[in-house]
Amino acid sequence: MTNQIHSDQNSSNKNQTIPINANPINANTLNQDIIDNDFVLVVSTVNGSGSQSANTILLKTLFRMGVSVSGKNVFPSNIAGLPTWFWIRASAQGFSARRKSPQIVVAMNPQVLKQDYQSLLPNGVFIYNSEFSLPESEYNRSDIYAIPIPVKSLVDQSTDQGKIKKLLANMIYVGVLAELLALDGELLEGAIESQFEGKANVLKVNQKAMELGKAYAREHKNNWIFPYKSKSILNGNSNKMIWDGNTAAALGLVYGGAHFVSWYPITPSTSIVENFSKFVKQVRPQIEGKNPYAIIQAEDELSAISMTIGAGWQGARAFTATSGPGLSLMQEAIGFAYYSEIPLVLWNVQRVGPSTGMPTRTAQGDLLSAVFASHGDTKHPVLLPGDPAEIFEFAQLSLDLAERLQTPIMVLTDLDLGMNLWTSNEIKWPEKPMDRGKTLSAEELDLRPQYGRYQDVDGDGIAYRVLPGTRHPKAGYLARGSGHNEKALYTENAEEYKTVVDRLSLKWETTKKWVPKSIIEQNNKSKIAIIGYGSSDPAIQEARSLLMSHGVTTNYLRIRAIPFCQGVLDFINQNDEIYIVDLNRDAQMFQLLRIEFSNQCHKLKTITHYDGTPITSDVVFDPLFFKFKGGV
Prior knowledge:
Helix content: 25-40%
Number of strands: 24
CATH superfamily of the largest domain: Pyruvate-ferredoxin oxidoreductase, PFOR, domain III
CATH class of the largest domain: Alpha Beta
Strand content: 15-25%
Number of helices: 21
């Protein structure tokens, strides 16, 4: 049976059926090879068309069925009108990285119809709105199968409210996919109800649209080829969560004891503060009509970091959230906090640069600017979490480290980690008390014959501080960003200045004992190694598995913090050839490793990915496979 595209138009010319495949896929062959829980689905829509709710419903239904699943949203930086794609990956092997090409496309955007059609893998399925015109001369692949859906007529049956018809088109394809993928009906209903909770009228009309799409697919599916299915797995996602990194950061900062945030909204970090505001109100009720926290939207990034510094100096656990352009604007103030040794957390959700760059694309391009933020000799601890559960953990840790080390702590995630939905282990609620670091009370000051705010008495580079409001003659000091000596007094004396900055360098060495250690997966039979960090981890893990299936074993180290711990040097010493994976053009982690371990430069090689899309496993697999196996 030849697959046909049908038009709903009334003109005699457009009413003709157009064969999509000159040589359609053999239905009998495909129907014998049903693939369970292993597919990549891409929904192509117009930005601003309301598709995010529908796509989230699909993703959460699969997750609740126990399927290993992940979601990636590739969207433009304008408000509406341009193409957007939502990638859903179900993996029987548990892989979660983005794939280069999909097996299923739902094409709802005529602007990129040809592009979406060509993107499909062989044996793929092209589900499209049958109103679209598809000339046979351009849509003639013989290795895929197309499924036309009369979206307009189905939407018309679901409502007569013109304003919402555009939105309901999304629930039509949800219904079609629910039938074709055999989604669990009860779990699907639950996902829809949670998505539109508190909106009874909206819920009802969306349910109706979904049911119409489902009924249409049920009626026609015997005429279609669709070899992909979902299958519930009992306890498949037990002890798992599906959420985004910005939500994890906000919750972690609340439970980590943050009481102050000042920020200027910027994509893709804004939802950290939005979620922090929501969560903190739930767990910290007002006291005598006043909030026990402060959330301030500043007029710009410089004001935001300056207010955060003031709160940190006063003893509050304070943070700001930004992205690369904001980090650039905060540079001088960051240097002030470093030199005057004021604790704060700067959370940077990275995006593509330089300049404004591509605000809704992902990258790891702020690594060097974060480590060396500001002018002069500055080096800042940087935390590099790899999934939402680790983001939650590092949120409290960052606040502890800021006070323990009395310095700005940078936490770097990226748009992929921050805004996309990831499956992670369930979080563990904090059990240990907050670490306020070296703070002195009035009673403790009495026991010290001498006290200098910037004096190292323990030999670890970390001085003792006194919080404002401490009643004691020795408690007062001036936190200044100009030259100062150990007693916080103004100086331009060369030796006194050098004493202070040398102590800050010693503090950097002490920091290595406190930051998270790297995660190492070592196979003594292999001398080939990969180093990654942050959001590249799923793609690297998948690439390693694929390489192993071809007889190439690799060792792996995931860096979770800078400065580098001893384990990083040991790992480099134990391997002959090390490939560092960077999501930036200039291989910034590679550069930092070359600076730190200059005598091992001959071992270090680089793999980079910097087009703004989440990294795929082939970026890592291809160069290593062709080098060590000689290609195919």
